[in-house]
Design a protein that fits this description.
Two copies of one chain form a homodimer.
Chain A lengths: L15 H20 L3 E2 L5 E3 H4 L4 H7 L2 E3 L10 H6 L2 H8 E5 L4 H10 L8 E10 L11 E10 L5 H17 L3 E7 H11 L5 H9 L1 H15 L4 H11 L5 H11 L4 H18 L6 E4 L10 E10 L6 E8 L13 E6 L1 H10 L14 E3 L4 H16 L4 E3 L6 H10 L4 E4 L2 H6 L2 E5 L5 E4 L1 H8 L1
Parallel strand pairs in A: 1-5, 7-8, 12-13, 12-14
Antiparallel strand pairs in A: 2-4, 3-4, 5-6, 6-11, 7-9, 9-10, 10-11, 14-15, 15-16
C-alpha cells in the first residue's frame, strides 16, 4: 500500500546544492585542522547507555535517543513492573544503547579505551552527526553535525594559541569577518574570591554584560538585588567599567585581583596567549571579554567564543580548557583544550552574506554532451572517455529526447559547457561547444575542447 | 562512579591511521562519481518506521534498529497489551522511528518527497552509514558505510555503460585488478521461459556455476534432481557449456533463446552494453556470466558484480537495473540502475595487497618543531605561521619536555621532517631540519625550509 512518505521531525534531507555547500564548509575545516597537525577519528553512532547516561545532566539523559533492544525486549521485566509504567526507570531495561549526543563523551571513551595506542599529546578532530531529542525549532535540529578538535594530555598554553590561529585561519578562508572573545575561568574565580561571593559569578557577568545597554547605575542596582554587598559592588567598579586595549584591561584586572592566586594565574595565562598571538599574524581581532561565561561547570582555564561581525546570528564557534576529561571512565588527570565549529550557523552566515564560492567547489558537472541518438553517441563515447581521463567532470544526456529537455537539464544542474554533435560535426570530426553563460558557440576538435575546459 | 568503557558489539572506532585509509577510499569513489556527473545527497540517519518497515522482508524488519519513543512511550498501550508481551506487535507502538537499513529505501523516499525539485534523469550518489542488528561476525558489522550511485528516470542503456566505466575507473585508481561479471535478468527469464520452468532459475544458475568443479554429468544430475525434465536439460546443454568470447557466448544464447521475446531483449541489451564499452577504453575485463544471479526479485535488466582478481574476498561491488523504485511510495513507473561499492571489503583488499598509497594522501603532519622552551617558541611561532600559510601541515610539540619524548611523538605520527631550534639557530637566524627517514640534518633559513618541504 502506498503511503505518502515523510521524514522524522527535526531531521533534514540535503540535496545536491546543499551538499556542495556543506562539503565546502567541512572540507575547509578539515583542511585547517590538518594544517595544524590534528588527526581525524570517528566513533560509532551508537554508544552503550552506560557510556552516555549521567554525562549531560537529567535533561540530557531525557534527550538521548535510545535504541530499543532487539528480540524480546521485555525479557527480565516483570508484569508488575510493566503495569507500574515507570518509563524513566524501565528505559535502561528496554534499551542498552543510545545515539551519540555530542562528540566529547565518545572522545573521552575513545581515549580511555585506546590509551595504550595513543601517543600523547593527542590532537584529534572529529566531524560527525549527533542526535538530540530536543523540541525542534528554527535552527535547532534533532540530527546535526559537530566539528570538534581537542588536544589532550598537554597543559601547554601553546595549544590555546593554536586554537585561536585555527579559528582565524578558518574564517579568513570563509571570508567571514569575526571577533574572537577570550576569557579565563580562573579570572572569574579570582573575581568571585576577591569579593567573597563564589556563587554569584553568573549574576556578575550577566550584569556587566548589560553595561552598554542600561548604564552603570542600573548595573549596580542589579548587582545589589542579586545580593552583592555594597563593598563587593565597590570592588567590582574597575571591572565593570573595564575598557581600553587588552593590555590595559589586563593591567586593570591585575590590580583588582592582586591578592587572588587563581586570579593572577588567569591573568598570566591570558597575557601569554595574547602576546604569543601577536607573533602569528592573526587577521581577526581577539578581545578580552570578562562577560564571556560559557560552560562554567566544565571549563577550568581559557574560554573563547567567536561572533560574526556582519551577522546577528550569535556565537558560531567556541571552546575552552578543561580538566579531567576522562576521569568518569577511570582515567584521571587528563586535561585538554578543545573547540567546536557550529557548521549549521556558519552555513547560514555564508548564505546570508553570499560568501559561498561562485565557482562550484566540489564536484559539479563541467561538460554535458547532448544526445541525438545511437550514431552520435558512438562518436561521443571515446571523446567523453578522453575528457574524463583529463579530469573534466562530464556526462552525456542518457536519452535521445528533445533538445529542449536536455538543455533544461543542463541549466538546472548549472553545467557551464554543453557539447553538441550532429551529422555535420561527425563529418568534420569536430564538436560544437556552447558556453552556457555567454551563449557563444564554436566548433573545435576533441583535444581543443579538452584544453579549453580543463 | 568510574566504569570501564566499551562500545556496542558490531561497532568500531576508527583511529587516525584507519581514517586516512578510509578517506582515501571514500574520496576516490566520490571523485569518480563526480567525474561522471553524479551529485551527492544525504538523508537523515533516522527514518519513520512507516518508511522502513515491510521493505526488507520479515527478516529485515527484525534487523531494523528501532528508536524508543521519547517521554511516556507506554502511552496508548493498555495494561493487557503490556502483559500480553507481544513484542513484535508492540514495537511500532513503542517506536515510530528506525535507523536507516540501506541507502535505497531512503533514496526512493527522497525522490518521491522532492520530485518537484529534481531534474530527471537524476544521477545521485550517497555515501553514509547504515545499521543492521545482524549477529556480528568477522567482516560483518552493525554499522557500516554504503557507497551507492543510481540513475533514475532514464531507461537508456548508456547508464549501464557508464556504471561499468565508473567501476573500471575506480579500480584502476585503486590499483586493484578486477573482473566485471555481467548478466541480464531478461536472459535468465528467457531461459526459464524456453524450458518452461519459471521457478527453477536459481537452481539452474547454481548448478551451472558448479560446472568446473563437478563436471557436466554431475551438473545434469543436479538439474534432474531439482525437477527439470530431460527435455529441459537437453535444451540447457549449450548454455551450461557456454564458452568463448562474449560475442560467441551471445551468439550461442541467441540461438537457444530465439523464440523468447524477453530473452532476445536481454541479449540485445547485453550486446549494446558490451559493444559500447569497446569504444571507451575499459582497462579491466568484463565478461558475460550467466551464473550471476544477484537480487533476482529486485533487478529487471542488467545485473553485474565485481571480483578482485588477486584476492579471494568475493564480490566487492555490484548492482543492476530495476523497475519501479518508488512505486511503494505512490510514484509508479520510475526505473533506474544503480551500484554500490563495498568499502569495507575494498579496505581489506587494499590492505592485503599493500596498495594503499605510501605517501600520506590526506592530511598527515609534514613538519614538527621541537619545543625547547619559551624563548625558542617565540622564535618559532612566526616561522610556523609562515609554513602553514604556505600549506605545510605543521605543528610544534606543545610542551618543553625531554627531546626523546618529542622525537617519539614525531615517529609515532610518521612525521617526515623535524625542525630543531636552539640558541645557535636563533643567533644565526636559521633552523636545523632533520629528515626523519634518512637521518640527514641541515641548517637553513625559514624560506629555504619552506621551499624544501612544500
Amino acid at each position: 500500500m502506498a503511503n505518502k512518505p515523510s521524514i522524522p521531525k527535526g531531521t533534514r534531507d540535503f540535496g545536491p546544492k546543499e551538499m556542495v555547500k556543506r562539503n565546502y564548509i567541512f572540507d575547509t575545516i578539515k583542511e585547517v585542522y590538518s594544517l595544524f597537525g590534528f588527526q581525524q577519528i570517528e566513533t560509532p553512532s551508537m554508544e552503550t547507555l552506560q557510556t552516555l547516561m549521567g554525562k549531560y545532566g537529567d535533561e540530557g539523559d531525557k534527550l538521548l535517543f535510545k535504541i530499543l533492544n532487539s528480540g524480546d525486549y521485555f525479557k527480565g521485566i516483570t508484569d508488575e513492573e510493566l503495569v507500574g509504567r515507570n518509563t524513566l526507570k524501565l528505559q535502561t531495561r528496554l534499551s542498552e544503547k543510545g545515539l551519540r549526543y555530542d562528540l566529547t563523551v565518545p572522545f573521552a571513551r575513545y581515549v580511555v579505551m585506546h590509551r595504550d595506542e595513543i601517543q600523547f599529546p593527542f590532537k584529534r578532530y572529529q566531524i560527525q552527526p549527533v542526535w538530540r531529542a530536543d523540541r525542534p525549532q528554527k535552527g535547532r535540529y534533532r540530527e546535526f553535525y559537530q566539528c570538534d578538535a581537542d588536544v589532550v594530555g598537554s597543559e601547554s598554553l601553546l595549544n590555546e594559541v593554536e586554537l585561536m590561529q585555527i579559528i582565524d585561519t578558518v574564517f579568513v578562508k570563509f571570508g567571514i569577518r569575526v571577533q574572537i572573545k577570550l576569557n579565563n575561568r580562573k579570572i572569574l574565580s579570582g573575581i568571585a574570591e576577591i569579593i567573597g561571593e563564589q556563587d554569584k559569578i553568573v549574576h556578575i557577568t550577566t550584569a556587566i554584560d548589560k553595561l552598554e545597554k542600561i548604564g552603570l547605575e542600573k548595573v549596580n542596582e542589579e548587582l545589589a538585588s542579586a545580593g552583592l554587598s555594597e563593598q563587593a559592588i565597590m570592588q567590582l567598579q574597575p571591572i565593570i567599567q573595564l575598557n581600553g586595549t587588552n593590555e590595559q584591561k589586563l593591567d586593570t584586572i591585575s590590580k583588582v585581583l592582586a591578592k587572588s592566586e587563581i586570579g593572577v594565574k588567569g591573568i598570566e595565562e591570558s597575557k601569554y596567549i595574547l602576546d604569543s598571538l601577536k607573533k602569528t599574524g592573526l587577521k581577526n581581532d581577539i578581545i578580552l571579554d570578562l562577560t564571556l561565561a560559557r560552560g562554567l561547570n566544565y571549563y577550568t582555564g581559557a574560554i573563547f567564543e567567536v561572533k560574526a561581525l556582519d551577522s546577528e546570528i550569535g556565537s558560531i564557534t567556541g571552546g575552552g580548557r578543561y580538566d579531567n576529561l576522562t576521569g568518569i571512565f577511570g582515567m584521571p588527570g587528563l586535561s585538554g583544550v578543545g573547540m567546536s565549529f557550529g557548521a549549521d550557523r556558519i552555513y547560514d552566515v555564508l548564505n546570508a552574506l553570499d560568501l559561498f564560492p561562485k565557482k562550484s567547489v566540489c564536484g559539479a558537472t563541467q561538460l554535458m554532451f547532448v544526445n541525438f541518438g545511437e550514431k552520435e553517441t558512438d562518436y561521443i563515447l571515446p571523446i567523453l572517455d578522453k575528457a574524463r581521463k583529463a579530469g573534466i567532470r562530464s556526462e552525456i544526456f542518457p536519452d535521445a529526447v528533445k533538445i529542449k529537455k536536455q538543455m533544461n537539464y543542463a541549466n538546472a544542474k548549472s553545467i557551464p559547457y554543453v557539447a553538441i554533435v550532429g551529422e555535420n560535426e561527425i563529418k568534420e570530426e569536430k564538436i560544437t561547444l556552447k558556453d552556457m553563460s555567454s551563449g557563444e558557440q564554436c566548433m573545435l576538435s576533441a583535444n581543443d575542447l579538452i584544453d579549453k575546459i580543463v
